[in-house]
Amino acid sequence: MQGILNGRSAIALGASGIAIAVGAFSLAPRTTAAETTFDSQVAQGRTAYAEHCAACHGNNLNDGAFAPALKDASFQAKWGGGGADKLYDYIHATMPPGNTGGLPEETYAAILATILAENGAKLAAPIHADAAQLAAVTVPKDAVDANAADIGFGGISTRRPLPAWPTRPDLFANFTPVTDAMLNAPAGENWLAWRGSHTGQGFSPLKQIDTGNVKNLTIAWAQSLPAGPNMAEPLVRDGVMYAYGFGDEVFALDATNGDVLWRYQRKHDAPPATSKKTISLYGDKVLLATGDLHMVALDARTGKLVWDVPITDKPGFRIPGGPLAADGVVMIGMATQEAGGGQIDGFEIETGKHLWTFHTVARPGTPGGDTWNGLPLDKRHGGSVWTSGSYDAENRLALWGVAQTYDTGPLRDRKPGMNNDGLFNDATLALNPRTGELVWYFQHMKNDQWDLDWVFDRVIGTLERNGRQQRVVMTGGKIGLFDTVDAKTGKYLSTLDMGIQDIVTKVDPKTGDKIYDPAKIPDGGAPFFACPNGGGGRNWSPTAFNQGTGHLFVNARDVCMDIVPGKPGFLTTGINMRYAAPEGSDGRYGMLQGLDMQNQKIAWTVYQRAPYTMGVLATAGGLLFTGSVDRQFIAYDQADGKVLWRTGVTDIPNASPISYSVNGRQYIAIVTGRGNPLSFGLGAMTPEIQAPPVNSSAIYVYALPDEEK
């Protein structure tokens, strides 16, 4: 059962709320269903109650100094006559303070059984964390005086009036469905999708905060999230922030102060180790791909589960990216090293019905299926998808990036009469979201032998080409090359080199084929030096694009590699990669760059010692925001990369910054939580930069002081 708390209900219940003290989260050995009776469950519940609840509510449930009574008149006046499901949901979603929802479900059920028994309930069977069963159980209600006082000190007097206080506004009162049109071109106050919109530009049109006043930014509010890895960008819709938390939790927060409106908690036997880059909004739903490989739809107004369907039954898959919702379909890409490679799946948003699967390692006998050097399907690996896609509303195409293969050995040398390009590795895929049909593809690097993924964000924009405006897709790989292709057809247009690589010596101006330096192709023989490192270059962190200036902003790690023999090796050509400084490096490995995509040149580059760990946000106020492994969040001038403001946070920032506004006030928000591999920094290359001793996660939100709004 998923614990759900609606914020408005929490206010109503607060006067007679329940507080359970934080303690050790153990319980007597679990009794099997066949052995358990209601009485034995109550006995277990008494043990759990003594451990977790008695400090506040009292040993007798009504003699605590710090919380209201859980039996007798005042309790029954509040809860009596109602279904036990509502009481269970409230306890599960709000207790214990500091670890809400953190106890095993059978512990919550046993505590609830004890409360029911203390109020006179006698049940024929034990209760479970099952909504239908609990709804059929009625909380006892005797003929009690609703004004009776409990014995403890935690109740609220009904004989003395409380001063009037404004009630929380209902932020969902005027909720309207999120449409494709909104996702394609959101109102400036909202941040509706990963990177802000379907186009993946990571750009905010808000300009209240600008290059002149950014130095005055101050913390507006902060909110803790479940401790653990987190790299998920929050979303904002009409004053409500939707945030992902470690363990596949989702929060709806008041975007002006961080107050919790509702919370969804998914129960796992073991929380997934992989964080996500995003969740999605569409219609009246929040869409989440979970660590146990399910697609879940929640009601965006309440957090209640709408549907829950499995994506795959293959245990070797993982989901570091997140869903893309468009044209009534929610799509999800998955990563794996299993034979047969990665895949992208589509589901009907209204019902959760599975619509299609696209395999990112081409099957024999299908387009691209003859590019695997004669390998049978069970010997083909790679094609992971670990970044969410973009959606081109004009051409109705979902654009996804695909990674490389670690099984490089069988592809390295082309067999006579064979093709060893390895589709669809290192490619952009343009799919019909309703059918999963492949409309076009472009492979950015053929037969990648260096682990130089091209799996990152696909940015949709418009550039002038040959005197006319052309709709394009821009994306770059770890190698630090940025390709531009036509959005409708995938036809190659251009490549811009960030200047951090020495593997590609030439790019064919017509086809975009990359020509490799033969001395840089690994063969498991003598060590050699190459740039960048297979760990990036640019890696994980998405870019930002300012359509008005035609500039794309990207951060990277200016580091190279010694490629040395290894058995079996990180890659199956029999090699390992060692980090190394570039020739002539001064030890500043963090690199931020402005790329003039219109004129295909580098506009500016700045360096710092600490490697960057989060994506880039560009705003109409002329600002760039990003952060680094030294726990710094920084604002730059888009024009030249000059640092304008910085602040420190408690953990490493990983989720890309976002911007939104409520009631005319612009906010900048980030999430910390060490959720992607960049969080580990460069280790011995920057030994003075220490990782935080505790892995925490939180939302930080910044704004100008009230007088400067």
Structural account:
The protein is mostly beta strands and 709 residues long. The chain folds into two domains: 133 residues, Cytochrome Bc1 Complex, Chain D, domain 2 (Orthogonal Bundle), CATH 1.10.760; 526 residues, Quinoprotein alcohol dehydrogenase-like superfamily (Methanol Dehydrogenase, Chain A, 8 Propeller). The chain has nine helices and 39 strands. The protein has a five-stranded antiparallel sheet. It has a five-stranded mixed sheet with strand order 2-33-34-35-36, with no helix packed on it. Strands 3-39-38-37 form a four-stranded antiparallel sheet, with no helix packed on it. Strand 8 and strand 9 form a beta hairpin. It starts with a strand and ends in a 6-residue tail after the last strand.
CATH topology of the largest domain: Methanol Dehydrogenase, Chain A
Overall geometric form: globular
Helix content: 10-25%
Total of DSSP H or I helical runs spanning 4+ residues:
9
**Total domain modules:** 2
Which secondary-structure class do the elements indicate? mainly beta
Q: How do the strands of the widest beta sheet line up side by side?
A: 1-7-6-5-4
* End-to-end Cα distance: 44 Å
CATH classification class of the largest domain = Mainly Beta
Radius of gyration: 28 Å
- Mean pLDDT rating: 91
Topology of this protein?
Elements (H helix, E strand, L loop, with lengths): L2 E4 H7 L24 H15 L1 H4 L15 H7 L4 H11 L10 H14 L12 H5 L44 H5 L18 E2 L13 E7 L10 E3 L2 E6 L3 E6 L5 E6 L14 E3 L2 E5 L4 E6 L5 E6 L13 E3 L2 E6 L8 E6 L5 E6 L30 E3 L4 E5 L7 H4 L14 E5 L6 E6 L15 E7 L2 E9 L4 E6 L5 E6 L6 E4 L6 E3 L11 E3 L13 E3 L4 E7 L2 E6 L9 E6 L9 E7 L4 E8 L8 E3 L3 E6 L3 E6 L5 E6 L9 E5 L2 E8 L25 E6 L6
Parallel strand pairs: 2-33
Antiparallel strand pairs: 1-7, 3-39, 4-5, 5-6, 6-7, 8-9, 9-10, 10-11, 12-13, 13-14, 14-15, 16-17, 17-18, 18-19, 20-21, 21-22, 22-23, 24-25, 26-29, 27-28, 28-31, 29-30, 31-32, 33-34, 34-35, 35-36, 37-38, 38-39
Helix pairs in contact: 2-6, 5-6
